[in-house]
Amino acid sequence: MFREEDITALKDAIERAQTIGIIVRENPDVDVMAAGLALYLVFTQILKKTSICSVTSPTVGISSLVGIEKVQKELSLGNDLTIALPYQQGTIEKISYNIEGDRINLVVKAGDRGINFDTSDIQYAKTGGSADVLFAIGLRDQSDGGKITAIEDKTFLVTVGTDGQSQPFGQVSFIDPSASSASEIVAVLLERLGLPLDVDSAQNLLSGIGFATDNFQKQETSASAFATTAFLLKHGAKRGGVKKALHKSVSEFPPSAFFPEPPQYEEPPFYDEEPVQQV
After folding, report:
1. pLDDT digits (tens, 9 = 90+) for 182-224
2. pLDDT for 106-131, tens place per residue?
3. Where would a tag sit more exposed on the chain, N or C end, judged by fewer CB atoms within 10 A?
4. Is there a contact between 116 and 91 (Cβ–Cβ < 8 Å)?
5. Is 117 helix (H, G, I), strand (E, B) or coil?
6. Distance between CA 12 and CA 168 in Å, rounded?
């Protein structure tokens, strides 16, 4: 599926990298987002400073993926802190600060209309910085991600996706025309790189494969999808944890997606026998 020289080049880049960025395409489906989040979880596990972003907000259909709350609108790999407050005209008059001991207090003075948001609506993000290694998941070109056009020359750019999702660009591309899903490609890639695959990452990838193959019912489902599924099950993914989502009805994988059901036999009817009379 992949060229050995590409695997070696990516492995070397990851070992040198301090920061990892992951960009998923605009309006990602379950498969693309699952692939991106699996990478995020794996790189976080090996203590790389990692950020994942998409220019569009995640939809309800992909909210069950592990780590979905980590997806931001832009990569946050720097040391600057941005605090985002909800704002409407007239709600905030000014913002000031004061220092008390070892604390700095930001003071938001209410406007004529009053502050109409809760503290839970405030968002915090580390901004600035750049990725040493940047994964582009499901992008057709460099403009598809919205934030990928301004990457630095030192960034090692990796494109991942199926033939229908992505076009090759960057230092290395892992685009397989025979693959059923981006999640399948990422699972194989992680195995080839020798990176640890935790249960949550495995579950996300299984969800992505299930979505892309319509729970293995599509005729074009690749043989590799079944082999990769077995690999993910060995790493703790559960069939019962996989849901169809995003414009599809919610249902669990049928057992026949992995194992053929035994034939069903109709039991013969039972007749009550009359007791035999003694003569």
Report:
1. 999 999 999 999 999 999 999 999 999 999 999 999 998 999 9
2. 888 888 888 888 888 887 766 666 89
3. C
4. yes
5. coil
6. 20
DSSP 276: P
CA 189 to mean position of chain CA atoms:
15
Query: CB of 85 within 8 A of CB of 122?
Result: yes
The Cα 56–Cα 79 span in angstroms is: 24
- Angle among Cα 143, 146, 150 to the nearest 5 degrees reads 80
Residues facing 119 on adjacent strands: none
> Which residue from 236, 238, 240 is spatially nearest to 254, judged by alpha carbons?
240
Cα–Cα dist 74/121, whole Å: 18
Q: Nearest 5 degrees, angle CA 157-CA 163-CA 167? A: 40
* Alpha-helical runs (H) found in the chain: 4-16, 30-45, 182-193, 199-212, 223-234
Separation CA 186–CA 236 (nearest Å): 17
CA 115 to chain CA mean position, Å: 35
Cα 249–54–4 angle (5° rounding)?
95
Tokens, residue 217: 């019912």
Distances (CA, A) of 28 to 41, 67, 191, 208, 278: 18, 15, 24, 11, 79
Q: How far apart are CA 54 and CA 23, in angstroms?
A: 6
